[in-house]
Amino acid sequence: MNEFKVSKGIADEYGASVSEAGINFCFASSCCTTVFLCLYGKDHKLIKKIDMLPYKDVGDTYSVCISGMAPEDVFYTYEVDGRVTEDRYEKNALRLRKWGESRRSGKINLSAIYTDDFDWGDDRPLNIPYEEVIAYELHVRGYTRHSSLKTVHRGTYLGLTEKTDHFREISVNQLILMPAYDFDEIDENKRTEFLKEGDDPERINYWGFKAAAYFMPKPEFSYSDDFVNEFKTMVKSMHAAGIEVIMRFYFPDSVNRNLIIPCLKHWVIRYHIDGFFLMGEDIPMDLIATEPVLCNSKIYYRAFNKETIFGKKYENVNRCLAKADDSFMNIARRFLKSDEDMLAAFTEANRYNPSDIRRINYITSYEGFTLNDLVSYDYKHNEANGEGNRDGTDYNYSWNCGYEGMSRKKSVRELRLKQMKNALMMLFLSRGVPVMLEGDEFMNTRGGNNNPYCQDNEISWVKRRSNREAEEFFDFVKRLSKLRREHPILHMSHEPGLIDSLSCGYPDLSYHSENAWYPRFSNHVRNVGVMYCGLYEKKKDGESDDFFYAGYNMHWEDHKYALPKLPEGLCWSLELSSDRGAYDDYKDQLLTVNDSIVIHQRSIILLRSSKAKAGKKTSERKTEKSVRR
Q1: Cβ-based neighbours of 122, under 8 Å, separated by 6 or more
Q2: Which pLDDT score is estimated for 623?
């Protein structure tokens, strides 16, 4: 290695960065006696220890510049008061271990120098409008780890790129990644009362919601050693397929809040990330929402202070903010299982989507039951976690449809299939961004475990089922997501006003009951009709959208609905139903204003306006008769 020179650096960017002057190292530490920069060569042997105390810069920062060394030839660590300290701002590293291998193995984690040598071409963040987003949440490792997904590069960023055709098949255009930054997946098991003699005191933290090295992708999720460029390849591939990449970031209280904004900017600038799902307390949302670099990035968080963000007339204000909490999930789950006095709350959640701060909706998430488990278990079954089933929430708002766990009984299986379809119809026919959980389209199950944070196995891995029910459900998901994607009236860019603002004879959205235009919201009512007026939105061809009528019946009894009248020349036709085969008699037939339709117990139907056929007296056909299967 050529001789290199050491000089005073600049404390403007923490970590190691490359400039024309050389490699700049900036480290922050308070109340320390000694600080050394330890440089290693390609053979991973120590070259030199540089005392950084003489290079103290402003405040508690130390910065040196190394010239005469090629970035790819050097690795580094810090030694503070005699202890090796990893750089929390490291942006690259030498990959020395495999997933699940303890960092106590004696191998020193060597940081590497980050360089921008990736060919992005004309790639940029996609900036898909919120109203057009259909999101999908997944774990990078667990999503492609199981053999049923038939992935070549299993459990890796590269493996994820193999699934772009699948995402497009179900109309997904946004991925939400669980922690994919460099967290240590090994935890010390502190709940010793559940440990048996001889048990390993270390356990896998599969999810990774903990303090981490936030500035680089997790190396163990990479198929190759070049995890930086493999992650970028994944992002570029997703963008080429029209799919955004959103990253979950958890910042516990132990993490300095000054780190957050530089971290987010780093991922947007260097990795072209489309946005972030932020987690943690005391996140500086007003600063994040007014940071110019982030002004077009989607930001999801559980709460925002509108006054501090919008009320002070900042020059740059992010208009891509969205509230993400469990409120829609809890309301929809309780309505799904027929709880009393939930109709008014559901209809409000169904239309809620303010124009200033948007809404993220989900019925299942990484934490809690999968969709299949939601209709198969009344109680959590977390025994495999080794914590006496004490972990995980006790409030799942689930219903097992009459039998706890997997069942072979036909009536139970058919009811569960219908309930899963009901849940997704609630999600996709609501305003706001719908988010599906990984594997829900495959009827994936975790065996009732609602907190598999430590399960790196078939409990957490996505498994694709291939039986008749699973194939039917997968086809249903494709049809439902395609409908939402193709019809803007089902994903309006603003919250409906419930008034006839166009003077067209119809409000943008209206509610109905057994009698058209006369909704009932009493506490005992569990059924409602919702009509979407297509005149308020234009399709891609410039024509007005269709009318839609969603009939929800979460009651355990059938209800007959009188249908609202459509403009002249239009009639209702059946588009989609959650009740398999129950409405076959309505297929390819038209319903007029004089018609009624029976919506079966615990079912949802979706009607769509169609042109009336000349010479057909559809109003004379009797459609009141219930058609049971």
Answers
A1: none
A2: 39
Q: What is the pLDDT of residues 405-446, one digit of tens each?
A: 999 999 999 999 999 999 999 999 999 999 999 999 999 999
Q: Is the pLDDT of residue 180 over 50?
A: yes
- Residue 454 exposed, middle or buried by CB count within 10 Å (0-12, 13-18, 19+): buried
The residue among 432, 455, 486 that closes a domain is: 486
CATH number at residue 392: 3.20.20.80
For residue 27, list its beta bridge partners.
62
| Cβ-contact 482, 171 below 8 angstroms | yes
**Chosen domain end from 451, 486, 521:** 486
Is the overall model pTM greater than 0.85, yes or no?
A: yes
CA angle (171 as vertex; 466, 494 as ends), nearest 5: 140
Residue given tokens 């030498």 in the structure block = 94
Contact residues for 617 (Cβ-Cβ < 8 A; gap 6+): none
Beta strands (DSSP E) in 126-219 are 135-138, 174-177, 181-182, 186-188, 202-204, 213-217
Residues 59-78, buried b or exposed e (16+ Cβ, 10 A)?
Answer: eebbbbbbeebebeebbbbb
pLDDT surpasses 70 at 611: yes
Laid out side by side, the sheet with 590-591 consists of: 509-512, 527-532, 548-553, 603-611, 570-577, 590-591
In angstroms, rounded to a whole number, what is the distance separating the alpha carbons of residues 299 and 288? 9
Cα-based distances in Å from 177 to 40, 228, 268, 309, 329: 33, 16, 15, 26, 19
Q: How far apart are CA 280 and CA 551, in angstroms?
A: 39
Question: In this predicted structure, what is the pLDDT of residue 52?
Answer: 94
Say what the pLDDT of residue 126 is: 97
Number of domains in the chain: 3
pLDDT value at 285 more than 90: yes
Q: Region 381-389: what's the mean pLDDT?
A: 94
